[in-house]
Amino acid sequence: MTVDFLLIGAAKSATTSLSNALSQHPDICFSNPKEPEFFCKDNWRNNLETYHSLFKNKSAKLYGEGSTNYSKFPHYNKNIHHDIFDYNPNMKIIYMMRHPLERIVSHYVHSYNRGHESIDDINTALISKSHYTDTALYAMQIEPYINLFGIHNILMLFFEDFISNPQHVIDTTFNFLGVDSITVNKKVLNSNKSFNRSVIHHKYDHPTTVFEKIRKIVFIIKNYFNSDFINRRPNISSETKAYIMNTIKEDIHKIEKLTNRDLSYWFEY
After folding, report:
1. Is the peptide bond before 144 cis (omega within 30 degrees of 0)?
2. 222: nearest Cα among 208, 204, 234
3. What Cα–Cα distance (Å) separates residue 33 from each residue in 55, 56, 67, 77?
4. Backbone φ, ψ for residue 170 (5° rounding)
5. Which one of 12, 124, 154, 195 has the lowest number of neighbouring Cβ atoms within 10 Å?
């Protein structure tokens, strides 16, 4: 088998909801877990059998996965675009973009609540750590894929469209993948929200022993009373906003040209 498509991001842009929707299609098999991050690893060529074992339906017409770390260049495998091309030069790439500042704030909140971020001041974190802004440089992330796979194999979507009319975006994606449209159960959408206290520390993700499972249950219960949990949108300073927008403004204009879309509202927050 060969994986046919990747939902590469952007992180915190409803990729989990979209992947849940796509996985409802009888012709599509999505990986379990949704984000195996397989091509982030340097030794991926030696582990193809393990990778393919994540796809349980061996009679599916299409196989896909949704690792958002594939659009966090250069913070993971710096050769990732060429590695994916080596694996499948006909790979289809799906990329969902969100208002950059909204995405960055959500990225920070999720990282903090999951235990990946230790800085408790959002302004300090956003200015001192480039990966938040780099992940919002959408043109920088998608252009290497366009150059390798061709624009016909790239689908660029917008979070705002998905929120306002999810079925239309899902139908567009089905059409891009070459499968018939189906009506998706809306209950699979809007999962994995950053402010949901069921979002827990990453170290409890995959308990294997009974003791570890009990620890996870205890942590989930305690997390509902965790005063350090960010449960509302933090405010970023005008200085931080100016810094971010100055960093990404030219990139936004590139996305406007690539998608033939007016994104002037992205400069408002």
Report:
1. no
2. 204
3. 9, 11, 9, 20
4. -65, -40
5. 124
Is the peptide bond prior to 242 cis by the omega test (within 30 degrees of 0)?
Answer: no
| C-alpha dist (Å) from residue 111 to 33, 114, 173, 211 | 19, 5, 28, 26
**Cα distance between residue 21 and residue 29, in whole Å:** 11
For residues 94 and 62, is the Cβ–Cβ distance under 8 A? no
Q: What is the rounded CA–CA span in Å between residue 178 and residue 29? A: 14
Give 158's strand partners.
Answer: 97
